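hi!! sorry for the late reply, been swamped w classes. u asked for the two structures so here they r. pasted raw, havent cleaned anything up. first the sequence of the first protein and right below it the tokens
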Amino acid sequence: MRCLCKKDSDEQGRQTQFIRLCHLPTKTEHKTFEKFLTYGDEILEEALASAIKVSDGSPDTVFLTLLGESDKGKSHLAIAACRRHLEQGHAASYVNVPAMLQELREGYDKEAQYSYSSILTLYKRVGLLVLDDLGTEKGSEWGAEQIQSIIDARYDNALHTIVTTNRPLDDLFKYEDNRREHWRDLANMRVRSRLERESWCKVLVLDCKEHMMR
């Protein structure tokens, strides 16, 4: 049996690895639930309560989608959820969607540190995943397929997921080629269906003033 000091050391090492693999943005230590101001706004209060539920692994709120323009507090809540989940000793991963797609492309390189399949598997299976800035990526059929694959897998396994976007759910994917308009519409419809379908899916529009921190 491991002695208590070794167990503590093991747990600290595990926590350190979780934090390293989470890829939280630098200089965001201040983005916590405690520093999220709601101004008494009902939508912000609901968004805060919902993000806390997701971070705590509640079965009531598994998929949380936050829509709104920039500087409404979407990323703050998503980062805070990751931090709380990590503090509870669970694995979480935060990804900016355009950067995630670039990471997946680089995974095809035989000399890459992590392979395409291992990266994709992580995002499909990690306990809490944040997909930040969905819809800001360069439109491509390949990119939309990766996003659909991740969301489908997490939906099928009811894994806690937070999505932030400044685009309407029926217009998440852009594609310049008008000949692919039917494909784009199907991709939008499929992802929107996953984000809204179940009782444990919540979509909130943060239609409020610019968010400030205390």
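now the second protein. again sequence first, tokens right under
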Amino acid sequence: MTCRPAAILAALLLAVTVVPRTAAAEDESPFAGIDTSDLLPAGEAEAEQWLSWRHGRAGQSFDAIAGQTEYEYGLTSDLQLGGYLKYAWSRVRPHAPAPSPAVTGADFSGVAAEVVYRIWDADSDPLGVAIYFEPTIGPDTRELEWKLLLHKSLLDERLVLAANLVLENEWEHSRGQWDAHTEFNILAGAAYRFAPHWAGGLEFASQREFDGALPWQTSSAAANSYFAGPTLHYATEDFFVTLGVQAQLPWAQNLSGTPGETVGGYAHEEERYRVRMRIGIEL
């Protein structure tokens, strides 16, 4: 059965129309893909559901949906712990004069843990600063993700500025060996609370790929790609939902010189469009 991108997007938008309870939330990020240094208060817990849809690649019909179910707990005022379940579905069909069969598959991606430690509090210090660490173990993958979280609230906390520096190390087991891959990403965004419960913003991402496990072994840069798009956020005291849409910008750089790494200004291995939805419920 053909996957219809418009139908998937409509389903995501429909989910955002859920009407939650009233009152204001203050500890969640107003962004779809950027974390802030705001953490859960000590002793409080939250459940989050992530759903990401990636669509389109150069030379192929591509759709992938990744899900993530999270539980987060504030151990202290400056330390937050969490655990995730990750799963995914994808469908790939190459474009060719004689079309190749579509490859469709669903899998359980793995389990992950989260540790976030806040160094500076955005409310009492000049800048909110936190360190984030997330290891993941899957059937054929191992991942280590490190983040430096930065954020500042201005205009009586109506305007939120945030940035994440992200290093992702991934090992994939295939044909009897482990292949290493690394990404260094810079995420930045601004969000403005324009009405009670509502915020709108813009997010930008720079993704640089490496072959190898930087910094543990020799790595070579492969490609650099860029994404940008709007975010819409709705929050109450115990519920929030965020929807973000991004498009790949035609600025991709072929850093390895390998033919086909970039096509028409776009990174060959990266999607052309991405949609992410987050729903959080205070427990």
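hope this helps!! also noticed smth abt the second:
The two ends are 39 Å apart (CA to CA).
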